[in-house]
């Protein structure tokens, strides 16, 4: 579904991602792990259209979207849950979810909203509450649900467990697994490498903006180098 070849991304001339090749099949779960500063979040920004590549191509369903702006990529089926959640703090939960569907006018909006509330019942309870007053875990649920309201084919998740208690993290990862099981492809960037690889079908290891290892998630979990560098073993 998604094919990335030779992608390079930079900030003011400083290359953060170089010559990246990455593939995601329809409905696949893919994890990207690496140390802070490895280029993981930058990769997601490039895929979401928030950064213009210095080089390389991005194809979605065999169509070149390298030069497409972010809003067109949302329309084509790519949705990003950003690091730090990025909820609209002065809007209510319900209004945030409406914003997630701002490009849609189809008849399935109500059923998709109900699906989000069923996945995260706390959001239904808080639907008239300002998003900025929610807990960190509730804001993460809202950020994911807002992205789902665009009805993505590919969901990009940037550090969804950041700053969350273990019990909340477990609930978030259960939701991500449910989303993937529904047929949505997932690209997960996550500091919790073990949780990410246990969820994923395949994985990529980024170091200094380059892929140094990739393969089946179970093989990466069994790799001595990965276990020592990223799993604390």
List keywords for this structure.
single chain, four-stranded antiparallel sheet, 2 domains, 233 residues, Rossmann fold
Set down the secondary structure blueprint.
Elements: E1 2-11, E2 14-24, E3 29-33, H1 40-48, E4 55-60, E5 63-64, H2 70-76, E6 78-81, H3 93-100, H4 109-119, H5 121-125, H6 136-148, E7 154-158, H7 166-181, E8 185-189, H8 193-199, E9 202-207, E10 210-216, H9 217-222, H10 224-230
Question: What do you see in this structure?
Answer:
The chain is an alpha/beta fold and 233 residues long. It has 2 domains: 2-77 and 152-230, P-loop containing nucleotide triphosphate hydrolases (Rossmann fold, 3-Layer(aba) Sandwich), CATH 3.40.50.300; 89-149, no CATH class. 38% of the residues lie in helices and 26% in strands. It has 10 helices and 10 strands. It has helices spanning 40-48, 70-76, 93-100, 109-119, 121-125, 136-148, 166-181, 193-199, 217-222, 224-230; strands at residues 2-11, 14-24, 29-33, 55-60, 63-64, 78-81, 154-158, 185-189, 202-207, 210-216. The protein has a 6-stranded mixed sheet, sandwiched between helices. Strands 2-1-4-5 form a 4-stranded antiparallel sheet, with helices on one face. Helix 3 packs parallel to helix 6 (136-148). The N and C termini lie far apart (35 Å). The mean pLDDT is 96.
């Amino acid at each position: 579904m998604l094919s990335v070849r030779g992608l390079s991304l930079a900030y003011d001339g400083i290359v953060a991602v170089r010559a990246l090749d990455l593939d995601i099949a329809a409905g696949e779960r893919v994890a990207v792990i690496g140390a802070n500063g490895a280029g993981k979040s930058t990769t997601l920004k490039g895929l979401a259209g928030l950064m213009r590549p210095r080089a390389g191509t991005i194809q979605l369903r065999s169509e070149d979207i390298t030069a497409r702006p972010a809003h067109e990529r949302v329309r084509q089926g790519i949705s990003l849950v950003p690091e730090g959640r990025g909820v609209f703090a002065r809007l209510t939960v319900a209004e945030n979810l409406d914003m997630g569907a701002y490009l849609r006018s189809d008849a399935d909006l109500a059923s998709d909203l109900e699906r989000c509330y069923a996945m995260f019942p706390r959001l239904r309870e808080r639907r008239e509450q300002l998003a900025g007053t929610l807990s960190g875990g509730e804001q993460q649920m809202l950020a994911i649900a807002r992205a789902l309201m665009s009805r993505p084919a590919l969901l990009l998740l940037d550090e969804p467990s950041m700053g969350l208690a273990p019990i909340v993290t477990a609930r978030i990862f259960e939701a991500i697994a449910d989303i993937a099981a529904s047929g949505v492809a997932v690209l997960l960037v996550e500091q919790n490498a073990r949780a990410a690889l246990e969820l994923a079908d395949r994985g990529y290891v980024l170091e200094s903006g380059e892929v140094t290892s990739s393969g089946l998630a179970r093989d990466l979990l069994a790799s001595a180098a990965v276990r020592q560098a990223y799993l604390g073993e």
